[in-house]
Amino acid sequence: MSIVESCQVLTAGYSFHRKPFYSNQPDGIKNYLFRLQTDGRCKARINGKMTRIEAGDLLLFSPTEPYELDIHSELNSMGEQIVESGDYHIFFGGSWVDEWWNHHKRPNRIKVQLSEALLGLFRQLVIEQRRMSNPYPEISSYYIRILCLEFDRMLSEHPIATHHNYLAYQIKNYIEENASSNFKLDDVSSHVGISVSRAVHLFKETFDTSIMQYTLDIRLNMARERIIFSPMSLEQAAESSGFANYTYFHRVFRSRFGMSPKEFRVIHREQL
Q1: What is the pLDDT of residue 155?
Q2: Which of 116, 136, 241, 269 is the most buried (most CB within 10 A)?
């Protein structure tokens, strides 16, 4: 069986609704469905109850599960009735997906960070499905596999869906995406809309490390990879990994890896 047959994307698209929309399929949707709410709000049936769905809610339904979606008008801050709901949706199936689905019990909804990495996966699947002539359909098959496994990873990182650890994971994602830039704690706390002290406490409580220590760990790993594999000078590798001061970088690098950046490069390049 080919990769396309074992894991196939049937349709993929993006919708933005400014008019009410309602869909009710009590016998299921015949295929698996990923639906990522990116803008606005709607309601969907989750565990037998119509539930408010907001930006950052990722829904997953199997072929036999009832599916009901209700996009209706709501009051905005000006007291006006408006309809606003945007989402990516992907219908897919295949034997690999069946095996993946049956391997673990998964919820219909998890709260996720709308990171560029996650949105990029959805966008790429939409682009692949729009191609009029596509001699490489297996590309979509690999993308949907990545998305399925990414769903599992996000689920493992959110064992208990609470507002607190959701904010902590937003902070974590921000650090991972911006570690190479010289951001401050104010930038992190502003990103999630809380105070610096609250952000520091939540992150420490959730991950048992500080924001700055986690940032340092990521920057050191980035620098290590660039020292080994890139043609950059040691100073360029440090700067591009978020270290503005080479003396400081040299000190923390030696403390972490037990040797200077120069010694590290010589030893590891000899092993390539």
Answers
A1: 81
A2: 241
> 92, 144 in Cβ contact below 8 A?
yes
CA distances from 24 to 41, 45, 91, 163 (A): 17, 9, 16, 30
Beta bridge partners of 197: none
Residue numbers of the chain with a pLDDT score lower than 70: 1, 4, 76-77, 158-164, 272
The torsion of the CA quartet 77, 82, 88, 89, rounded to 10 degrees, works out to 140
pLDDT tens-digit profile of 148-189?
999 998 887 765 555 567 788 889 888 988 999 999 999 999
Angstrom distance (rounded) from CA 248 to CA 118: 34
Strands 109-111 and 74-75: unpaired
Cα 263 to the center of its chain, rounded Å:
36
Q: Which two tokens stand for residue 79?
A: 């007291």
3-state SS of 122-170? Answer: HHHHHHHHHCCCCCCCHHHHHHHHHHHHHHHHHHHHCCCCCHHHHHHHH
Q: Measured at the alpha carbon of residue 26, what is the angle toward residues 18 and 4, in degrees to the nearest 5? A: 80
215-222 LR contacts (CB < 8 Å, sep 24+): 215/175, 215/179, 215/242, 216/252, 218/175, 218/176, 218/179, 219/179, 219/180, 219/243, 220/252, 220/253, 220/256, 220/257, 222/179, 222/180
Question: Which pLDDT score, from 0 to 100, does residue 245 have?
Answer: 94
Long-range interactions of 237-245: CB distance < 8 A, separation 24+: 237/261, 240/180, 241/179, 241/180, 242/179, 242/180, 242/181, 242/182, 242/215, 243/219, 244/182
Q: Model confidence over 89-121: pLDDT tens digits?
A: 999 999 999 999 998 888 899 888 888 889 999
Q: Are 34 and 90 in contact (CB under 8 A)?
A: yes
